[in-house]
Task: inverse folding
């Protein structure tokens, strides 16, 4: 199930190229469908949204059912066990505490010459969240996308979740949204949901930013509406890279690789180790553990497509390879792992030591699990409170301070051929 390759070989280079190509969104057939969906919703509004919901999810859906009622939310609480609500509360508390540490405040500074400079920091007014809930119930993704927005102080948060064939939204998703304080929930998903939130309909008011996971149709739709609204990022398939030495537990490592491979067949699960014997132990453990899991087909496909153990000379080379791959999740199962954290330059999240599995980061630790994928960790960061804030610059000059810099501004403007800019400075001091 797990192929073992020697680093710096042709086979390893081919696999690395394949891994790096995962982040590229290129599919003209999907793009064509997405553009048609966006156009339909922009033109026809609710009518088009419901038509796509009927086609993809709930055949008997009606416009009046598009927004979830308070009664539906109340009924959902009757369907979930109290243990689930306790778990959601635990996770929400940790996620809120972590994101509250990211809050910024407006600031101003006054120079000796009277110049005042600063930033006004305000939350976005209205945000839309897309969360799939058909093949997987992503209650954790709902938490991770909504909570930073609420901590930032976003006034209005609209959530779009695709309904089941019964026209209901899964009770676990409704309860999770409600526990986060969300009451504005719509029964739609995919590109149609993105279009509804971007352009607005009679039922769905337009938003300023759209965040949330989804398949390629959702990602292409977000890419197409970017500029009309803001988006969080283009999220690719999930990925994990584990760096391990001979001190690691092969069963732990195998379990963590499986935890990402089970998402979908295009997930990546990579082990980098200096020990061929350890890689063989992990391979055997994956085969044993995988047999007892329900998503065996997804596991087999993921390991076939993007699963590998790279054999390197030492941990320094392992870290260098990890920086090249720039994984979404990076686990360090090595002796003295904190000594290597500073050498990791490119990773969405670093999970340190044998008792920090990716799963705890996904659900309850607190840091956001919406992470850069497809090598985007080279330049991108996890979703955070900053994604829901905007900054406005403040500039205030006194007459004497402006007069002192006028010659420099005039010279720069004249070099650029912008005489109007130069004149706007000089006119203030013609009498002088």
Result:
């Amino acid at each position: 199930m797990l192929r073992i390759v020697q680093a710096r070989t042709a086979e390893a280079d081919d696999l690395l190229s394949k891994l790096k190509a995962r982040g590229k969104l290129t599919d003209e057939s999907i793009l064509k469908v997405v553009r048609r969906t966006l156009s339909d919703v922009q033109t026809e509004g609710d009518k088009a949204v419901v038509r796509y919901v009927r086609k993809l999810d709930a055949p008997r859906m009606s416009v009046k059912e598009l927004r979830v009622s308070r009664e539906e939310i109340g009924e959902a609480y009757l369907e979930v066990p109290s243990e689930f609500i306790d778990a959601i509360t635990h996770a929400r508390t940790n996620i809120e505490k972590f994101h509250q540490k990211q809050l910024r405040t407006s600031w101003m500074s006054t120079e000796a010459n009277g110049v005042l400079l600063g930033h006004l920091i305000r939350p976005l007014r209205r945000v839309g969240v897309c969360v799939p809930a058909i093949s997987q119930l992503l209650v954790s993704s709902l938490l991770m996308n909504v909570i930073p927005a609420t901590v930032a102080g976003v006034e209005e948060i609209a959530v779009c979740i695709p309904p089941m064939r019964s026209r209901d939204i899964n009770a676990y998703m409704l309860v999770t949204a409600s526990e986060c304080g969300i009451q504005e929930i719509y029964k739609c998903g995919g590109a149609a949901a993105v279009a509804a939130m971007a352009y607005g309909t009679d039922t769905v008011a337009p938003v300023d930013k759209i965040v949330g996971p989804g398949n390629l149709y959702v990602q292409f739709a977000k890419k197409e509406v970017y500029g009309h609204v803001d988006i969080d990022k283009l999220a690719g398939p999930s990925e994990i890279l584990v760096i391990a030495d001979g001190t690691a537990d092969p069963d732990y490592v195998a379990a963590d690789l499986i935890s990402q491979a089970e998402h979908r067949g295009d997930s990546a699960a990579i082990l980098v180790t200096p020990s061929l014997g350890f890689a063989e132990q992990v391979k055997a453990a994956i085969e044993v553990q995988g047999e007892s899991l329900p998503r065996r087909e997804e596991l087999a496909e993921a390991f076939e497509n993007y699963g590998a153990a790279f054999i390197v000379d030492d941990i320094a080379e392992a870290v260098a390879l990890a920086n090249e791959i720039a994984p979404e999740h990076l686990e360090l199962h090595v002796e003295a792992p904190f000594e290597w954290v500073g050498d990791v330059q490119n990773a969405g999240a670093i999970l340190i030591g044998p008792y920090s599995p990716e799963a705890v980061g996904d659900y309850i630790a607190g840091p956001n699990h919406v992470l850069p994928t497809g090598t985007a960790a080279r330049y991108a960061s996890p979703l955070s409170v900053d994604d829901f804030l905007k900054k406005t610059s403040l500039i205030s000059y006194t007459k004497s301070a402006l007069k002192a810099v006028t010659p420099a501004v005039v010279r720069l403007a004249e070099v650029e051929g912008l005489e109007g800019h130069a004149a706007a400075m000089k006119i203030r001091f013609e009498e002088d």
About this structure: The radius of gyration is 25 Å.
